[in-house]
Amino acid sequence: MNRTLTERARSMRIHSGLPKQFWAEAVNTTSYLINRGPSVPLKHRIPEEVWIGKEVNLSWLKVFGCIAYVHIRVFKYKNGSNSVLVVKKDDYDKCNTEKPIMKMDDGDSVFKFDRSGPFFFISGNKDNSQKDQKLIVVVLAIRNHNKFPPVAVPPAPVGQTPASSPSPTKSSPSPAPATTPSPISHTTSATSLSPI
User: Fold this and answer.
1) Which one, of 196, 163, 139, lies nearest residue 20 by Cα?
2) What's the number of domains the chain is made of?
3) SS3 state of residue 110
4) pTM to 2 decimals?
5) d(CA 126, CA 105)
6) For residues 133 and 156, what is the distance between their CA atoms, to the nearest angstrom?
7) For residue 68, what pLDDT band results from cuts at 50, 70 and 90?
8) Residue 74, CA distances (Å) to 4, 23, 71, 113, 161 in order
């Protein structure tokens, strides 16, 4: 199963064009999809359906790494009784409410995700935060469609047409001409594709 997860996650991450920082997200998504796809040991039934005992709706799935748009999160709570804090990862892990990046406390707080990467939210009430009233949102980056420049083909000299394929002859083959590597040739070993 480990190899299956690794190979599928690597394939999804590379196809999407996302950097290696999204390796964990690719593995999580791969695991999610494996549990919601047909399984041979279960006679082609879906593991999630077998586990929960009802049909799973997958109509909302999107392509991994697809373009997403800015999302606005609205937090609703009783005004004055709580607040929402945007914090750093370390403060999120420790439920530290002392040094928030941003504090929202009006009862109907709106937060706009304006960059890619992780966002960490905790309750402004330390007791609630320690009871797991916290949230992580990861915003994925937009895919870069033009990673490599297109290959330019030099035009034929004026007044000449491109030569047709040579007809086979009985003479001995001539040695191959020396070539220089293309500036866009890409050879990578499988080991260089590992997450870290």
Assistant:
1) 196
2) 2
3) strand
4) 0.41
5) 14
6) 68
7) low
8) 38, 28, 10, 11, 65
CA distance 72 to 108: 12
Q: Which two tokens stand for residue 97?
A: 């409410």
Nearest in space to 122 (alpha carbons), one of 95, 140, 145, 143: 95
Nearest to 121 by CA among 95, 93, 84: 84
Token match 């007791």: residue? Answer: 127
Give the CATH number of the domain where residue 133 resides: 2.60.40.420
Q: Report the distance separating Cα 122 and Cα 87, nearest Å.
A: 7
Residues found in the chain: 196
Rounded to whole angstroms, the Cα distance separating 122 from 132 reads 8
What's the domain range around 87?
72-139
What digits encode the pLDDT tens for the residues 2-56? 899 999 999 999 988 888 888 999 999 999 888 888 989 999 999 889 989 988 8
Give the Å distances, CA to CA, from 34 to 1, 28, 44. Answer: 10, 10, 12
The answer to whether position 166 is within a domain reads no
Are the beta carbons of 114 and 69 closer than 8 angstroms? no
